[in-house]
Amino acid sequence: MGIAMAREENKEPVGPAARMAAAVAKRMRLSKGMTQERVEELVVARMARKALFDRKVVCEIELILDESVLRRPIGSEEVLREQLVYLAECARRRNVNLQVLPLDAGLSGEYVGDHGMMNVVETPDHDRLVYLEIQDESLLITDRPKVSRYTQRYVKIRALALDPRTPLGLVERLAGAPR
C-alpha cells in the first residue's frame, strides 16, 4: 500500500509505484497472470512516471508507505535492498516528504490505509484529482465530492504515519540490515 500527495505542474500521478524498480514491477505483473507484452507496456509507463523525480522543474511530493512494503521482498533480497536505497535517495530530496505507516497503525481498531494505493494530485490551478491503481486497472477520479472523500482519507492516513523525520532512518537501516 502506498499513498502519495503531489503538487505539480501537470496531472501525471506520482505514486509509490512510480519509484518501483523495473524488476519488481515485472515480477509483480507477471504474478498476476498478464501477458508479457502487457507487462512490458505497464513497466515502461511506470518507469516514465519514475522520471518525474529527476526532472528539472520539481514538484512537491508527499509519500506515505505502509511499513510492510519496506520489509517484504519481491523478487529477491537484493532487489528489495536496491529499492530501499533508491527510496532513501528520493527521501533526501528537499521536495520529497516520506512518511511510513507503522505496522501497528491498525491497533486502534480503525485503519483507513487498507484500501490500496492512492495518489492525490494537486494541479497548478489548485484542482485536486485522485488516481487509483487497483489490481491491473487504473482510475482517475475528478468528481469533487469523491476527491474530497479520498483527500479526507489521505489526511487520516497521514495522521497515523510516523513523524517525517523518522522514516529515512528506518529505510536506511532496512537497506543495510542483513535479513
Q: Major sheet: size, sense and barrel closure?
A: 6 strands, mixed
Order of helices and strands: EHHEHHEEEEHH
- Regions with little confidence, pLDDT below 50 for 5+ residues: 6-19
Count the domains. Answer: 1
Helix content: 40-55%
Number of strand segments: 6
Shape: globular
What is the number of helices?
6
The Rg value, from CA coordinates, equals: 16 Å
Strand composition percent: 15-25%
Organism: Streptomyces exfoliatus
InterPro entries: DUF5753 (IPR043917)
Protein name: DUF5753 domain-containing protein
Pfam family, one: DUF5753
Structural features, described:
It is a single chain. The protein is α/β, with parallel strands linked by helices. The chain has one domain. It is built from six helices and six strands, in the order βααβααββββαα. The protein has helices at residues 22-31, 36-50, 67-71, 77-91, 144-160, 167-176; strands at residues 2-7, 60-66, 96-101, 117-122, 128-134, 137-141. The protein has a six-stranded mixed β-sheet with strand order 3-2-1-4-5-6. Strand 4 and strand 5 form a beta hairpin. It is globular and about 45 Å long. This is DUF5753 domain-containing protein. Pfam families: DUF5753. Residues 23-171 form the DUF5753 domain. InterPro entries: DUF5753.
Keywords:
single chain; 179 residues; alpha/beta; six-stranded mixed beta sheet; 6 helices; 40% helix; 21% strand; globular
